[in-house]
Design a protein that fits this description.
The chain is an alpha+beta fold. The chain has 7 helices and 15 strands. The structure holds D-MYO-inositol-1-phosphate and calcium ion (CA).
């Protein structure tokens, strides 16, 4: 079995290749190819092309590995599984906003050991390998610590369904008066990298799928953050909270009575 660092380097190389293809091929106005969970949950041809490129490279180099991708689902089995979001922040990509990324994580025996989030338009590639830290441009990342809730800049996001959004707006109405401010960037993977880099203090969201947070989650944890769900449960699409341990506890305490795992 390769080292976690080797797997992270390979994920980085593949994410860079996908990023180059996306930069070269992105038309001024990408076309919506299909919608998924709701009319606003879109797929462009380049989401699919990016996942295809990533899957082809993984298969060429490591034909025995499993791959779980946002567009193509699960293929193969094996102790090593790649978790791929070919474009996280598809709506930003569609509108020409720069907040989107290619996200690739690698699991061994069900544990994420390597993660790469390539913020293509920004030219920033966040990487982490389990036990080896989180990195950006040769600098080790450290999340902000010692920030009380009322001084915390908190990133969050909203789902695509109206019933979910109603509850998310209700929860947000209670959170907003208690924190410094809220940011809605449009890519959960990059929100988690922002926690890692100290560009926001914390993050919470109901809904992101495993491919949205697998790589960014490792990057945040390797930068010293805690990531989890409500009441000691692991983070999941039900709810993901991420912040330095002290702020995590305060944010968790604020969220629990708001019952944020509901949909209307
Ligand atoms: C979405 C983004 C967004 C988050 C949504 C995700 P997509 O992923 O990560 O920030 O709020 O929950 O679905 O659709 O752009 O790949
Ligand atoms: Ca995504």
């Amino acid at each position: 079995m390769e080292s976690v660092v080797t797997l992270a380097r390979l994920a980085e190389e593949i994410s860079r290749e996908a990023g180059e293809m996306l930069t070269a091929k992105r038309p001024a106005r990408p076309e919506v190819l299909a919608t998924k969970s709701s009319p606003t949950d879109v797929v462009t041809a380049l989401d699919r092309a990016s996942e295809r490129l990533i899957r082809d490279r993984i298969r060429e180099i490591r034909p025995g590995d499993a791959i779980l991708g946002e567009e193509g689902g699960l293929t193969g089995d094996g102790r090593v599984r790649w978790i791929v979001d070919p474009i996280d922040g598809t709506v930003n990509f569609l509108y020409g906003l720069p907040e989107w990324a290619v996200s690739i994580a690698v699991e061994v025996d069900g544990e994420v050991v390597a993660g790469v989030v390539n913020a293509v338009p920004r030219g920033e590639v966040f990487t982490a390998a389990r036990g080896e830290g989180a990195w950006l441009a040769g600098e080790r990342l450290r999340c902000n610590t010692g920030v009380p809730l009322d001084r915390a800049l908190i990133a969050t996001g909203f789902g695509y369904g109206t019933g979910r959004r109603k509850v998310q707006a209700e929860v947000l109405a209670h959170v907003l008066p208690r924190v410094r401010d809220i940011r809605r960037g449009g890519s959960a993977a990059l929100d988690l990298c922002s926690v890692a880099a100290g560009r926001v203090d914390g993050f919470y969201e109901r809904g992101p799928e495993y491919w949205d947070y697998a790589a960014g989650g490792l990057i945040a944890v390797e930068a010293g953050a805690r990531i989890g769900g409500l009441r000691g449960r692991p983070y999941s699409p039900e709810l993901t909270i991420c912040a330095a341990p002290g702020l995590f506890a305060e944010l968790h305490e604020l969220l629990v009575p708001l019952d944020p795992e509901r949909d209307a």
